[in-house]
Specification:
The protein is built from 30 helices and eleven strands. The chain is mainly alpha-helical. Strands 3-5-4-6-7-9 form a six-stranded parallel beta sheet, sandwiched between helices. The N and C termini lie far apart (62 Å).
């Protein structure tokens, strides 16, 4: 995604050769990413554009380095000087611009977080920061203006390793990719195995992405050796390889793929079909590698049909890319299914520029988009994020506006900054290029600005006094009111394999979460996910004035239903089974069912599936005893968080007072609320409409106690109640707990 169409001038003709088909391929990659980010439903697999970029970058960088080695002009300092001129100027401009916009529209906490990402991006480690930040209460990915720079971190970390690996593995003027290929093979195996265990690390870190860039380097070496053999009768493997080493790797690959394929419980779901197809493809490639290595006759027959193979490679490659962009999903990505876009990209590059689809890729306007793909990639995501933040109710078609703006910014960046810094040209004018130190200073300036935002905790003094209170607002730690680690578990908390059910000892939660029933004292069970946990502070306050005992069984992404939900936390099945066993023994008087219904609907479950799961749960609870059942419905959700949304709303309208009501719940939430209320009424259970309690046609309530200096906000993030909000709902709504 960073490698340009041409290199800096070094005095030879080949530095200026630009393959138009690769420019077109780069255009397809960046356009697919843009469409996926702006209109995710239109191109669900458009994120594979990043993987296409990885292969292209590996190919171009590998080709340049290997040619330099062959021509005895390899210089690590020279290589990094080119990288600095190529990457730093546009990146520094985007980081400084994002900092400037953040100064105007972000709250203190958001601006401080943005500063961290600017510093990390300036040192090409944003992927590591994003990995370390991932968690249930982390800011949503859609609200991070520099989220996309994780891929730039991957590439630059790859560039730190590969030049030295190629140099030390080479002998004389013969470039060797031996160590790159070995690490690439290990990386592919790690991707096949680890994507099912640590999704976040697999997505953000180099160890499961290295093979994608390494594939491009291997392709570059194969192409260079093929060109070198055109005038020779020597027909051999496209690069030196140890037969035994390749055979061992092939065998291990087939073994790993077979184990993963055999251990999979899913088979006919859409994502599973592609994952299994990727495992089969990996096995086939491993076997073919051994066959081509051992059979020279097979290589000769393939070379005799080179022209036909090039055309076929071009067509099949573009089909694999298009199918990946249309059909794949980001579940367990990267994984074996990532082979489809990677192999497809390699097949298109391997075909000659005039073969099949490659000739079409060379035409305008694809070549133009490919030429600005790097600054376009840098600009598009922050423009989209800030547009969404300032226009939270923008229609789908209006998302074309930030895309057009990103294209314009990318073109201006290339014409007015990139080309002058790289080539010393502005239009038809030529002049001396900036010194490297000047280019580096620009990026260091961006890092310094980011550090300033972090050190000053978001520079709250930049805001008028009336806005500072909301800009610096932070909610109370949910761990205090939720009893995290004791009565509430995050989605990633595992179930202990050594615990066993006992009528006298709770399996999952501490003793304080499961009090025993006392004569004459109502026993209330609070069961659900984090939207049940955020009700506990209100119940605790109620307990201070009413003699009740409260059982709290809450776990993130574990809905309180007997029917599993798609993409629920891995431990939910075991916790659900434990809860159902414990119910009969504890016999609570009231069961309070609460879940993030508004977040499940449309993402993991349909409305009909939620209603069906709720009905089956209520019927089962009724069979298990005569008790009161209360269902708590969906609540409002905010774009980023209530505090951040209010801040931007007040800044845009120059308000100095927090509006009592703001925002409007999505129509799907209202529809789900009505459907759940109807179902509860039909089944004879009590229903609490959170939406109707907090919201009306004028908007949703924002603050509780207006007499205290600090804003008493009712939600501390995009969908969870503060302690004040929980107490407000529990104390003033009719729960029918007694």
């Amino acid at each position: 995604m960073t490698e340009g169409g041409s290199s800096e001038s070094t005095g030879t003709t080949r530095d200026h050769v630009v393959r138009g088909d690769i420019e077109g391929l780069r255009a397809l990659a960046v356009v697919s990413v843009l469409i996926n980010h702006a209109f995710p439903n239109a191109l669900p697999g458009g994120f594979v554009g990043v993987d296409i970029f990885f292969v292209i970058s590996g190919y171009l960088i590998g080709r340049h380095l290997l040619q330099d080695i062959q021509e005895n002009r390899f210089s690590i300092l020279g290589f990094y000087a080119k990288r600095v001129r190529r990457i730093f100027p546009a990146l520094a401009l985007v980081l400084i611009a994002v900092w400037g916009v953040g100064w105007l529209v972000l709250s203190a906490s958001e601006f401080s977080t943005l500063g961290q990402h600017i510093v990390a991006s300036a040192f090409f480690s944003n992927n590591i920061l994003l990995w370390s930040e991932s968690g249930y209460f982390d800011v949503a990915a859609l609200d991070k203006p520099l989220l996309h720079l994780w891929s730039l971190g991957i590439e630059e970390q790859f560039y730190l390793l590969v030049p030295a690996m190629l140099w030390f593995g080479s002998k004389g003027s013969s470039g060797s990719i031996r160590w790159v290929a070995r690490l690439g093979a290990l990386s592919l195996l790690a991707t096949i195995i680890l994507s099912n265990f640590d999704y976040v690390a697999s997505f953000y870190l180099l160890h499961t992405r290295f093979w994608e860039l390494a594939a491009g380097v291997v392709l570059a070496q194969a192409e260079l050796r093929r060109h070198a053999r055109r005038s020779s009768s020597d027909i051999g493997y496209p690069f030196p390889a140890n037969v035994r080493e390749v055979a061992v790797f092939a065998g291990v690959t087939v073994l790993f793929c077979t184990v993963v394929l055999g251990s999979s419980e899913q088979r006919w779901e859409w994502d599973a079909v592609f994952r299994d197809g990727g495992l089969i493809l990996a096995s086939v490639i491993a076997v073919l590698a051994v066959l081509c290595l051992r059979r020279g006759g097979l290589q000769q027959r393939l070379l005799n049909h080179a022209a036909h193979l090039a055309n076929a490679s071009s067509v099949v490659g573009i089909i694999l890319i298009c199918v990946s962009a249309v059909a794949l999903s980001s579940s367990y990505w990267p994984g074996a299914q990532t082979l489809f876009p990677v192999i497809g990209t390699a097949m298109v590059i391997a075909a000659t520029p005039t073969a099949g689809v490659n000739a079409v890729l060379s035409r305008q306007p694809l070549a133009f988009i490919g030429g600005i793909s790097y600054p376009l990639y840098l600009w598009h995501w922050p423009v989209i994020v800030f547009w969404r933040l300032l226009n939270p109710v923008a229609s789908g078609i209006e998302m074309a506006i930030p895309l057009v703006a990103a294209v314009a910014l990318a073109w201006l960046t290339k014409a007015l900054l990139e080309d002058p810094v790289r080539f010393g040209k502005l239009g038809s004018s030529s002049f001396p290029r900036l010194q490297i130190r000047s280019v580096i200073v620009g990026l260091l300036l961006a890092a310094a600005l980011g550090s300033l935002a972090v050190a000053t905790r978001g520079l709250p003094s930049r805001l008028p006094p009336q806005l500072q209170a909301i800009a610096t607002w932070s909610g109370s730690d949910p761990g205090i009111g939720w009893r995290i680690g004791r009565c509430y578990y995050s989605p990633n908390t595992p179930v202990s394999p050594n615990t066993h059910f006992s009528p006298n000892t709770p399996v999952e939660f501490s003793d304080e979460c499961t009090p025993r029933k006392r004569p004459g004292v109502p026993l209330v069970l609070l069961w659900g996910d984090s939207h049940a946990a955020h009700l506990y502070p209100g119940l605790a306050k109620l307990q201070a004035t009413h003699e009740i005992d409260i059982i709290q069984w809450t776990a993130g992404l574990c809905p309180p239903t007997v029917v599993p939900f798609a993409n629920e936390a891995a431990a939910c099945r075991a916790r659900r089974a434990t809860a159902l066993k414990m119910l009969a023994h504890l016999n609570p008087d009231t069961v309070l069912l609460a879940g993030a219904w508004e977040l499940y609907v449309g993402k993991t479950q349909s409305e009909a599936e939620i209603i069906r799961a709720l009905s089956e749960t209520i019927r089962l609870l009724r069979k298990d005893g005569d008790r009161e059942i209360v269902v708590v419905g969906p609540g409002p959700t905010w774009n980023t968080s209530l505090a951040s949304d209010l801040f931007r709303f007040m800044v845009a309208r120059r308000m100095d007072k927090i509006p009592e009501r703001y925002g409007h719940p999505f129509e799907t939430a209202w529809h789900l609320d009505a459907a759940m209320a109807d179902e509860a009424h039909e089944l004879g259970v009590h229903y609490v409409s959170v939406l109707n309690y907090f919201c009306n046609e004028s908007g949703c309530r924002t603050v509780g106690d207006k007499t205290i200096p600090k804003p008493d906000l009712l939600y501390f993030d995009s969908n969870h109640l503060t302690v004040s909000g929980s107490e407000d709902l529990i104390m003033h709504s009719d729960l029918h707990l007694f």
